[in-house]
Amino acid sequence: QVHLVESGGGLVQPGGSLRLSCAASGSDFSIRTMGWYRQAPGEQRDLVAAITGRGSTNYGDSVKGRFTISRDNAKNTVYLQMNSLKPEDTAVYYCKADTCLTGTSICPPHMTSSYWGQGTQVTVSS
Question: What is the pLDDT of residues 18-44, one digit of tens each?
Fold first, then answer.
């Protein structure tokens, strides 16, 4: 059981920056991959960035070179630094965390549980 709380969203002008934070809390959890997803009105929810427990990262093509994901395992927090923001980045951003029932380095899909935050609105407009 993991509870995720996002913060840092808001209104920003094109070319500006925002830093999103997602703090995880819960008892007896082992968080593996954490990530950020976004969903615009009428669109599907797409991957923005993800980071594994060992620090490997993956980014959606539209944000490569502009966004940076990082994590602080001691604080159970994942961050998304968003630079050079564009109007097309406007969406609700959701934090996601995956946990595993096993303690192995590789988690079988059927032993993976995903948790989502409530989402935070990011609006890029002049």
Answer: 999 999 998 556 788 999 999 999 999
